[in-house]
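In response to reviewer comment 3 from the previous cycle, which asked for concrete evidence that the modeling workflow produces usable outputs, we include below a single protein chain processed end to end. The sequence was submitted unchanged, and the resulting structure tokens are shown without manual editing.
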Amino acid sequence: MHLVSALLEETRALRFRATQKNTLAIFNWHQVTPAFDPARHHPHTWTALANFETAIDDVAESHSIMPLDAALAALDGGFLRGRCAALTFDDGDRSIADYVAPLLLRRGLPATFFINSAYLRGDRTYWFPVLAYAGHLLPAAIKQHGKALRQTGDTAFYARYREALEQYAAAVPNLADRFVTANWLSRLDGEQFAIGAHGHEHQRYAMMSEHWQRRDIAANVMALRDFRAFRPVFAPPFGKPIDVSPDLFRIAGEARLKIVLASGGINTRSAQSYDRIPADNVIIKRALTRAMAANGRRAAAAAL
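The workflow returned the following structure tokens.
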């Protein structure tokens, strides 16, 4: 059965390649360092620096790598040509300043960094790092319920336990230097390296009220807009379909922000939101095949 599924996936990917000549693949990473540190890195969001370099080689071999905002403008305008790619990084992890930006600078490759402005001072964080890096200090009940926050659809449950977890933010190791600083962001040129919005706080927007979403996006844009590298593109935290709401699309549209998700597809036309390919600790060629197959599945479903 696994072999049949793999063959079907490859067939869909081949069909996509044959029929779609002008495409935009947006790749998304979080933490990139030479070695894994369990006090700072999560297995699901960390990539070894050597593997990241290999991934960049694989992308560059088959795609023209463009700045994200320029690529989206070309896609929207109908003048994107060939197989294009953009590189993005979420959350503002310190590793993008220490390892990612220097590597990309040497290679002359552009990237966009999506930033949560609430954490730039290094004195607070959100529930996921608390659970991941200070879980051994949490009361058993809070820890157990906290594990359900990523998937729950219960807004009251989410509010109760994310707030309970965030009371322990000070227990997260190296809190003061986990994220990039405003000073570092101020040095980005806006040509090779750009800044995008990622929410003032890193929360699942679908679990928050419309008022909260509107206020959070406004605070994020206000905190970032004076950086010369800021571009009006918004990557909702977590970025899967279960993490966003119809309210979010309307609010972002009113703020004239383009939305990029993390839903695993490849972009072929102007849209309300754009797909990104999660690239943490994956083989890029395999991720591309899956993304092309996902587009093929969507096209087949739409044709029914």
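The first strand starts at residue 23 and ends at 29. We consider this sufficient to address the reviewer's concern, and the full set will be provided in the supplementary archive.
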